[in-house]
Design brief:
alpha/beta, 2 domains, binds zinc ion
Amino acid sequence: MSPQTISNDYTLIKAARIFDGTGSASTSGNAILLNNRKIVAIAPAGELTAPNHSNLTVKDYGDSTILPGLVDGHTHMMAPGDGTHGDITGNEQDDVLLMRALQNARTFLHAGVTTARENGAKNKVGFSLKEGIQMGLSEGPEMVISGRPITITGGHFWYCGSEADGVDGVRTEVRKLVKEGADFIKIMATGGSTWSSDPLKPSYTLEEMTVIADEAHRFGRLTAAHCASMQGIKNALDAGVDMIIHCVFEDETGMYEFNEPLAEQLAAAKAWVNPTLHVVQAGIDHTERIGYNRGWLTKEEQASIDSSKASLETRNESVSKLIKMGVRMIAGSDSPWGAYPPGEFVKEMVALTKAGLSNTEALVTGMSHAAESIAVGDQAGTLAVGRPGDVLVVGGDPTADLNALWDVKDVYKSSLRIERPV
Ligand SMILES: [Zn+2]
């Protein structure tokens, strides 16, 4: 159905509760009417009807909750999420990566994610993924894409194809990405897991970072910076970057220190933080599983488990301090990166509750706040009349237990019910 077609098909959905995604308490007794890709009414179930002569489908989900479709603020659809190292994935052919990305995008959608912000894929894969989904060639969430992350020569994700150095180089690269269709600019402010990069060291100079942020903003694009250590956070904030990803408070020797002035700068800048907690736990679980199946762990595996556990502990501590200081968190899974499989976004929201958010606050980090942080707050993350009919129905009450999000009853995208394998 093209957006211009006026459809005569109406769907009325009702359930015990509606949680609108803003953080307001759930309401009971209401229902939602969908038509023509949009939410056309939210009102007491008894008062809602479709016009005469329309085709009305009524779905009563009983003891379930109607929610806005989830907004995952951080995905890497080209990756398998099975523990394969990024450098191995980055060495694969584009057409294979695109096929995997399409498969993953479907898995995300079936798990209730109707909007995803893609934080970087190789060459044209991210752009093609978005285009293919928009053309209806494959099912997936609404994609907000960076295309490729900007990185220094040999920096984190260099294999994606956007290495750029010096103020002229990075300015050109931002313009190139905008020309190709990037919705936002992802910056690798420090190294990461990429073998030729160092997560503890900043990559760009402040001067380069400032040019990237300014140039992106001049084109009306938001910026998000991967910051695996402290100087990267500092550079990103000084440059005016809009979102800090990972936000690891470690210095160049790997020593954890909660830097109070930096945290205050973060709060004052109103920068969003996407702490990506579960991807660390997923890595620990994966290595432990290898050890369990083999019967023993190598020294390196044990060391990696120990350091990841220590790092997760300090990350939890810093995130809970940041929350208390009023820093705004969003849930972005970073999946299927590392060993974090697709379709498990709920685990990141659960991880945020361990760092101090209530269930309702954690839901908001994956709904209205996530949408606002990626500049689609008027389209996604909240149930309201006139918005796209992106709706998730789950059994039970996720404000009482986030694990209710696993019990997906139905997903609607643009008011159409998605057929899922059972
Ligand atoms: Zn990432």
